[in-house]
Amino acid sequence: MISLNHMKNSSTIILQIVIVLVGIGALAFLLWEPQIEGRNVHATLFEIYFKDPFLAWAYTASIAFFVALYQAFKLLTYIGQNNVFSQPAVKTLRTITYCATTLVSFVVAAEAYLFIVRPGDDIAGGVFMGLLMIVVFGVVAIASAMFERILQNAVDIKSKKGS
To answer: How far is the C-alpha of 36 from the C-alpha of 150, rounded, in Å?
Structure first.
């Protein structure tokens, strides 16, 4: 019979694999998409990657995304080790909250850029994708902040019992 501990460990490993696959997929998309974008079809690699401030903005914002993925991977490691009620787990959730908030800020700034710098262009698709990302990253920020608060309370209670 499969033990509950074995099922939990296999679940966390599967979720860690999913996080790694999401990271690989996001990196592949970041590198591949600019080459097939309509205005870059006949551009050189230098023109694609070094003359587009919006692309530089997206790559800078992606740092927070990859940091958040790494922190989620770390959190699953703590869960797999039965170490979830610890200060490092709380710190990991706090970092995820900061990363999600940073991503919301980057997307809001990108949306403002679209409205201010490109008012005559057809920006409906970009605006919709930006709003969708704001909602997703906002939900992640709120959920991780709530879990952080709950986990911090549990760690405080655990430390008071241990004293």
So the answer is: 45
